[in-house]
Amino acid sequence: MALLKGLSLFANVGIAEAYLKDLDIDILIANEIDKDRARFYQEVYKDTDMVVGDITDNSIRDEIVNKSIMKKVDFIIATPPCQGMSEAGLRLDLDPRNQLISYAIDVIQRVKPKFVLLENVPRQLITKIQYGEEIVLIPEYIKRELGADYRFNEEVIIKMKDYGVPQMRERNIFLLVRKDLNYSWKFPEKQKEVTLFEAIGHLPSLDPKLREGMEFTLKKFPNYELKRQEGLKISKWHYPPTHSWKQVQWMLHTPTGKSAIYNEIFYPQKDDGTPVKAHHNHYRRLKWDMPCRTITQNNGVISSLACVHPGRKYLNELGKEVYSDPRVLTIYELLIVMTLPLDWNIPDFASETLIRRSIGEGIPSKIIKIIMEVLIKQIKEDIKWEK
Fold first, then answer.
1. 3-state secondary structure of 30
2. Helix, strand or coil for residue 377?
3. Span 206-225, mean pLDDT?
4. Please, where are the H alpha helices in the chain?
């Protein structure tokens, strides 16, 4: 019998839930608006009742609530979309996506679970939403709505790198315990930092596949096929990403941890030679001696925020110093830095774009696991004393 029966709101493809079954937590119901992501989730978690639809639709929300009450859900995890608040987004005033938290609150108030985990980006703490006739900060709104029935954790900002996750991702997480229960739910003890080298440094090097075609790829990278085969021995997900030659050439000449925009010759430029205007973290290689930068939904694009493999220096056929792996991280490398199970059952129908975007919008699986372990340990102690 499960120790907790759960509901997952804004479920994405179930990245947060990857280890919950191991903790005797059954996610019985989930809700996701995107049909492809909902299908992905359902194929991974076959026993979960997936409600596909928009939580802002009253009939969808009623279905979620009624099923949760019927199945006696006592735990809710809600991870609303963060694009309206993210550092990588536009951050519009009163972005309608930021209002989605109110629909999660409505479900919580009606289901009345014992425990709630609310996750979002740190900017949620300083983001305002419409609350009746008022404009209030999201944390103030949440506490006004739920403070009478739930206790909140005091420390609410968590850095993934402090808990053995090889990624710098930072999150705002509220841990709620219903006031009629005697549990203290807070973040676990910190763990040793894991560098990107420790996480993926053992994996075989890969040359990118060039958009200009296989003949051109082999001309530029004669060992492409040999490396590809070595990668596939590790996992079917450790295969070469595809990029254009011009971007690959810029990254070939970009040192570990540096951005191509600072290269003297091979810098991002338009066809007429005009430098491309870019943020200092665009076209940037990651660093070996630090955790990975935050994985974003555009992690498959070289020009996105700090998502290019660190690479290793070597001499090319002209005796010039260049750097290997001028590519983004493979899906297998993303599984590692997101601490997903390496045998995670990714459905065959899922496109690379769907996989990458879904991973980029998820929260590292390990952080949810160890946060839930703090609570599960107390629940097990209670059961032991009851016996």
1. strand
2. helix
3. 98
4. 35-44, 58-70, 100-111, 138-146, 196-200, 214-220, 224-234, 245-252, 331-337, 352-360, 365-386
Give CA–CA dist 371/117, Å, rounded.
Answer: 9
Per residue in 346-356, pLDDT tens? 999 999 999 99
**Spatial separation of the C-alpha atoms in residues 254 and 322, rounded to whole Å:** 7
What is the amino acid identity at position 315? L
Average pLDDT over the chain, rounded to whole? 94
Q: One of 9, 82, 334, 371 is an active-site residue; which one?
A: 82
Inform me whether the pLDDT recorded for 85 exceeds 60: no
Residue 377 pLDDT exceeds 50: yes
Compute the distance between CA of residue 141 and CA of residue 125 in angstroms, rounded to an integer.
Answer: 11
| Model pLDDT, residue 150 | 98
- Check pLDDT > 60 for residue 82: no
Count CA atoms within 13 Å of residue 380 on its CB side.
10
CA distance linking residue 20 with residue 9, whole number of Å? 15
292 is known as an active-site residue: no
| DSSP state letters, 96-117 | GGGGHHHHHHHHHHHH--SEEE
Q: How far is CA 252 from the centre of its chain?
A: 28
Could you tell me what percent of the chain has a pLDDT over 70? 95
Handedness of CA 274, 280, 286, 287 (dihedral sign): positive
What is the reported pLDDT for 84? 47
Domain annotation for the chain: domains and CATH numbers: 4-191+363-386 (3.40.50.150), 207-329 (no CATH)
Q: What is the pLDDT of residue 317?
A: 85
Q: Cβ of 289: how many Cβ atoms within 10 Å? A: 11
Q: What is the pLDDT of residue 93?
A: 56
Q: How many residues does the chain have?
A: 387
**Residue 68: both structure tokens together:** 């949760």
Residue 386 has pLDDT above 70, yes or no: no
**Helix count (H) and strand count (E) of the chain?**
11, 14
**CA neighbor of 99 nearest in space, from 59, 141, 146:** 141
Given a contact cutoff of 8 angstroms between Cβ atoms, the answer to whether 383 and 375 are in contact is no
Judged against a pLDDT cut of 60, whether residue 90 lies above it is answered with no
